[in-house]
Amino acid sequence: MDAVARLRRWPGLLAGGALVAGGTALLGPGPARRTGVPRPLSCVAVALGGAIVANELTGRPVPFLRWSFLRLLVGIRHFARTGQIGDGREEAFARYLVAHARPGDVDDAIRTADEFCRTGRILAAVGDEKGPILERAVAAAHPHRILELGTYCGYSALRMTRATPSDAHLYSVEFNAANADIARRVIAHAGVADRVTVVVGSLGDGGGTLQRLRDDHGFSPGSLDLVFLDHDKDRYLADLELVLESGWLHPGSVVVADNVLVPGAPAYRAYMAEHEGGLWHTTEHPAHVEYQSLVKDLVLESEYRGG
Q: What is the pLDDT of residues 109-149, one digit of tens each?
């Protein structure tokens, strides 16, 4: 393990150590009476802290016991509001990838991104299990024009670009300008900047972003082959309806949606179930939340059959 990797483990080691120390201190009869903390809760704190410390010290840590994963859960509301976890991991990711991935090599960029997420700090990206599901859906669709909602740090853009023909182009919409800048740097380092355009905005901004996609990027009726939804889960159905109202899809267009189970997009899933065999044909791909194997998730792959 190199020095940088060891440094990235320190937050977890400190957090786990604090849980062990605090829980042990509360196990005594005096502190337990004064604080009112139940003894079983103190035992849980000691056990969890010990597991986190042991986990961080191993060469291949269990993701859901990592402080990085727990910190992501703590910051999930901040992420929903701002598009970032709040601890600087997005910028750290960009710097790590540029420093460690071979320039102009999209495969190595993806490998390096997965390495960062497994051994450094987990990102709220599609990840190494659902990433191949996305790539297979993209490859099967043979798209030439792709719309992504939710660029984040550019990881899924790398996955999709790797799976598309060389003349395909991805337009990725991201509401957080700092994330857009990070994604552009990552995409450029991977050597695919000529195939990806990152647009700062949101389809739900009153029509401004929709108009820019039409005027500046040539979106027109029937021109869109694939949509990837990985942004605000509450906006999945509303934004799909805006795309439909714009007429950009054609029969055979594909829409892929991540995180349908966790954090969850129940209205979107219900809509696809309601229109199954009519406007849409949907395949549900069971998977897990990013970079762990405990929490289950779903990726929906839906083919548009309307006119």
A: 999 999 999 887 889 999 999 999 999 999 999 999 999 99
Q: What is the pLDDT of residues 178-202, one digit of tens each?
A: 999 999 999 999 999 999 999 999 9
Alpha-carbon distance values, 291 to 49, 50, 80, 133, 176 (Å): 21, 21, 19, 14, 23
Positions marked catalytic: 230, 233, 258-259, 290
At 301, the amino acid letter reads: E
- Cα distance between residue 229 and residue 227, in whole Å: 6
Taking only the tens place, the pLDDT of each residue in 162-171 is 999 999 999 9
Length of the chain: 307
DSSP per residue, 89-151: HHHHHHHHHHHHSPTT-HHHHHHHHHHHHHHS---SS-HHHHHHHHHHHHHHH--SEEEEE--
Cα angle value 233/235/239 (rounded, 5°): 135
Q: CA–CA separation, 68 vs 129, rounded Å?
A: 18
Q: Which helix (H) or strand (E) holds 231?
A: none
CA 82 to chain CA mean position, Å? 14
Phi/psi at 142 (5° precision): 50, 55
Rounded CA Rg of the chain: 21
Tokens of 14: 């400190």
* pTM exceeding the 0.85 threshold for the entire prediction: no
Residue 8 CB neighbour total at 10 angstroms: 20
